[in-house]
C-alpha cells in the first residue's frame, strides 16, 4: 500500500481555523471595547435611566387677586393620566388610540391628532393623555397595569377662572404650549417643553414668567415594568408669584352688569384712575369662559365649543377695549378743541365760529344735528356742535390735525400690559388704506377728519387715556393692570425673583407723557366738558350733584343716514372723569349699534360712578340710578388655593 503524507493539508486547515478564531476574537474585542470603553458611559446612563426616573412635580401658578385681596384666579389639584414614551417599548402610538379612547372616554380623533403631533417632536418623558381623571379612569389604569405599563396617574394643578366669563379678557387663560410656539427661541430659551402649560392671553400671558413658578421632581427607583419601588429624593416645586391687580371687583361687577343689560349686549366699559393709569375695571361684551382652555379643550365637546367661539359673529374672544377700532364720534372734539386753541386756529377771546346747521364743500352738504348759531368753544363742546368743528378743522388744516394726533399719542398703542393691543387709525392713515382711488387730500377730507366720523377709528382705551389726560392738565399715564407681584418662598428663604410693580413694556416711553397745555386753554375745555353734564348739555341726564362729572357724549354713524338700523345703528359713546376739577376716576363706555350716546353709554357710566361713590364715600350717591345687586367674594386671602371658590356675578 502506497503511503500518502497528509500533514501539510492538516496544518493548512489548522492555520485557517486559527486565523478565523483570531479574527472572531478581534471583532469581539473591538466590540467589547466600543461598548465598555468608548460608549460605556452612554449605556451605563441608559441602564441607570431604566432603573431611576425623575417624575416632574408641576409648580402651582400664582394666584391672581383684585386690588382688595379678592382672589380672581387660582389652581386646584386634579389627577392627570400621563403616558411615558420610554415605556411604550416598541408599540406604535397609533395602536393605543382605540383602547385609550374607549377605556378613558376620550375622543379618538383628538387623541390621534395629539400622537401625530408628538411624532414630529424630540422624544420626551411623558405625554398628557387626559386631564381631571375620574376615580373610574384611575381604577381602569390600575387594573391594566401589566397591559399598559406606560400609563401612570399624577396629581397636577389645574387653573380655575371665575364663571360667566367675568374678567375673561383681562385675566386671559393658560394652555399647553404648542408645536409652533416651540419653534420660537423665546419659548425654547425658557426651558419649556411639549406638555408644559403657559399663559396664552391676557395677564396670564403678560406675566407668565412670574406666575408659572419652577417645577420640582421626585427621583424614584422603578422596576422593569415601570413600577415605583423606592423614592430617592424629592425636590419641591417653587410656586409662582401671586399677582395683585389694579382691578376693583365692585366696579367690575357693575360694569359687566351694564353690558349684559345693554341694548345690544355688545360693547366695552373701562374705568381708570387718571392719576396713575391703574385700570379699575374693564368689561368687554360678549365674553367667554376661560375654563374652556384650561379644563375642556382636550375633549370633543371642548373643541366644538372652541370652534363656535372662533366662528362667533359677535367675536367674543376680542377684547374690545384694545383690539377693536370705532369711529370716535363727538368724543374726538375734545383733543380737537385743545389743539385748535394751542395752534392759534381760534383763541379764547375769539373762539366763536358759525354752526350754520352744517357746511357745504363743493356740491356736498355735511349737516350738523342742530343749528347752534355762533357758539364759542365751550358751548360747541357742551352742545356737541358739528358745524363748529367742521370750520375749526378747516382752520387747523390736515397738518394741524396730524400734529394733534401725534401730540396725544393717538397714532400709538397705549402700552397697556396685556397683549395684542392694536393701533388706532388716524385720518391720513385711514384715507391711505380705504380711499386708494383718490390719495389727494381735499377740503372735504379735512371736514370729515374734524368731527370723528369718517376718517378715524379709535380704540376705546386710547380715547379714555386722552380725555383723562386733559383732566390732569396734560399728564397721560400708561394704562395698566399690575399693581404688585408678591415674592414667594418659605419664611427666611429669599426668593430667586424680586417683587415688582408695574413697569412700562417700552422702557423708552415716558410715563406719564406730558402734553403741554396752557392753563387757560385747559380750563376752557374742561368747562365745556363740565357743562355737558352739569349745565344743560348732551349728558345732562346723568348729572351727579356734589360729584361733578366732566364728559363728552358721542354718537358715531356706522353707515349712511337712512340705513342706520339694527346692526348698522349708531355706536353710543360717553367718555368722562370725576370730579371735574380734581379727577379721581375716569370712565368710558361704548355700546355698539345702540343709538345716541346720552341714551345708552352715559347711563351705563353713571351706574359705575354710583358704585364708586358708594364705596369711597360710604353713602348713597345723589340721584343714583337703579342697579341690580351683584355678588362678590367674602373669603379671607389666607385660604389655601384649592379651597378658594371664584366669584360669580348675579
Shape: elongated
Low-confidence stretches: 633-650
Number of strands: 20
Sheet with the most strands, sense and barrel status: 6 strands, mixed
- Percentage of residues assigned to helices: 25-40%
State the end-to-end distance.
122 Å
| Assembly classification | single chain
> How much strand?
15-25%
Radius of gyration: 34 Å
Structure annotation, total helices? 22
Residue-averaged pLDDT: 84
Structural class: alpha+beta
What does this entry look like structurally?
With 650 residues, this protein is of the alpha+beta class. It is built from 22 helices and 20 strands. Strands 2, 3, 4, 5, 10 and 16 form a six-stranded mixed beta sheet that branches. Strands 12-11-20-19-18 form a five-stranded antiparallel beta sheet, with helices on both faces. Strands 1-8-9 form a three-stranded antiparallel beta sheet. A hairpin with a 5-residue loop joins strand 2 and strand 3. Helix 11 (249-260) packs antiparallel against helix 22, helix 15 crosses helix 17 and helix 15 packs antiparallel against helix 21 (519-534). The model is unreliable at 633-650 (pLDDT under 50).
Please write out the topology.
Elements: H1 7-38, H2 40-51, E1 52-57, E2 64-65, E3 71-84, H3 97-104, H4 108-119, E4 126-130, H5 135-143, E5 151-160, H6 168-171, E6 173-176, H7 179-182, H8 185-188, E7 197-201, H9 202-206, H10 208-211, E8 216-222, E9 228-235, E10 243-245, H11 249-260, E11 267-272, E12 279-285, H12 291-296, H13 300-310, H14 320-323, H15 333-342, E13 358-361, E14 364-367, H16 377-383, H17 386-407, H18 427-434, H19 443-449, H20 460-471, E15 475-476, E16 482-485, E17 513-514, H21 519-534, E18 550-556, E19 571-578, E20 585-591, H22 601-617
Parallel strand pairs: 2-10
Antiparallel strand pairs: 1-8, 2-3, 3-4, 3-5, 6-7, 8-9, 10-16, 11-12, 11-20, 13-14, 15-17, 18-19, 19-20
Helix pairs in contact: 11-22, 15-17, 15-21, 16-21, 17-19
